[in-house]
Amino acid sequence: MTPIIEVVDLKHVYSPGTPFEHKGLDGVSFRVERGQTVGIIGHTGSGKSTLIQHLNGLLKPTSGKVYLDGTYILKDKQTTRNARFRVGLVLQYPEYQLFEETVRADISFGPKNMGLSDAEVKKRVEAAAACVGLTEALMEKSPFDLSGGQKRRVAIAGVLAMEPEVLILDEPTAGLDPKGRADILENLKVYQRQKNATLMIVSHSMEEIASFADQLLVLQKGRVAMYDTPAEVFKKAAALQEMGLAVPQITQVFLRLKELGVDIDTDVYTTGYGLKTILAKKEGAGHA
Amino acid sequence: MLKDITLGQYFPGKTIIHRLDPRTKIIMVVVYIVALFLAVKYASYGLMLAFLVSVMILSRISPKRLLSGMKPLIIIILLTGILNIFYTGGEHLLVHWRFIRIYREGLINAGYMILRIIMLISGTFLLTYTTSPIELTDGLERLLSPLKKLHVPVHELSMMMCIALRFIPTLIEETDKIIAAQKARGADFETGNIFRRAKALVPILVPMFISAFRRADELAVAMECRCYHGGEGRTRMKIMKMKLRDYVTFLIGALLLAGVIVLRHFGL
Q: pTM of this prediction?
């Protein structure tokens, strides 16, 4: 089967020919299968935001290609425009992009640009709003009267309403409280299940990404340092630390236990699995 | 994208030109402009060009970068040249076709005019390319400080200029982000008639204004938290001091001006 997204040797140079020239991306290649959830991690300036803006054709690469479902996305104008709708991109702090008079009108902006009928737009707006938990009462309010967390939901709903096959989010939970974070991640999972969509999420929280993603893409200095399951990636704790990244706290606990001489597996990266491992260990010790 | 605008941009460096006192550089630009307007013929232009090229070499700014910054001004430069060709009278008639008369003097005059404008712009570009906006406004404030006696709010004006300059790149970056976000939602800025295009700007302008006001508000709070209260009795972290290199520069400036005046006297 063709991968939904395939990136081949992508390079991007910023401000070429000036003293400000620097490489944003330096030969990135990877593929994402339909329905996967990919977490993108990397130190500040490792090229995460640059990478995701290539995936829907917002940025044009210096060299290299991005294929969406087997089609080169910059083939012609129409293909690029379609790619924008098929790959929904939520940038960092998306609440600053709100501009309409009402929440409803703002969420409709994307689907209206797609040229859908009014009835279809209305249907999609309702569905997207329901997905992120916006109540009917909020829909007629001005987006500027909402709280930070609510604004974030409106902005995400604005992209969900386009019903993209691939949904890419740049730190969707940054600056939110724990409840807000959990809610948004849950909403995204619901959307993914409903549409069999592919999710790609940039995050700085290892805990979040460990429990959420089934593949991790680790970027360093514009290159792919690792691309594997969370279990495999977090095994390389030392390498991650060298890149200025960390392993989840629960993994750190297990690594320390191992260091202290406890005979225990360290491939633990969620609290739930950690609890199971410890209980199994306890039971095993009881029987011995 | 928007980031590629270079007009009036600062290119950091450590050359002697970069390290000169900003006041020296501002005064030198004024001297240079005056001298440029006093120049008449090839000898004086040659002297000015020699000065410009040496500053360019010393500051390690390539001619290519200077010229690429002039791109938006090409039309004005060409128009001035063309007007000069047609409106200069003289003795040597080259072309006479209906009401159009082109004289050799006109061509020469147009050439000098274009050269003068390019040199004028190059000189001011060299100032902004080698001086950070903060230094520039600081220098201006110091140079204009005698006006304080006349109750001109020099400090406030330079503070406003400084803040404006400081926020231009920030706002450009922010605008780029908003454009990207709206494009990701399928916004189309490139097709349709002028009204459609103007309307397409609303999704960019509204968030931009809101963000500019928010930034202004945050900056005001931050400044008050640090007890900023205007120019009265304010001291500086970096006190500008004229050094030997500045006096040498003034000497060169004086010689340049004198040279051009002497050459002018002999009609060269």
A: 0.74
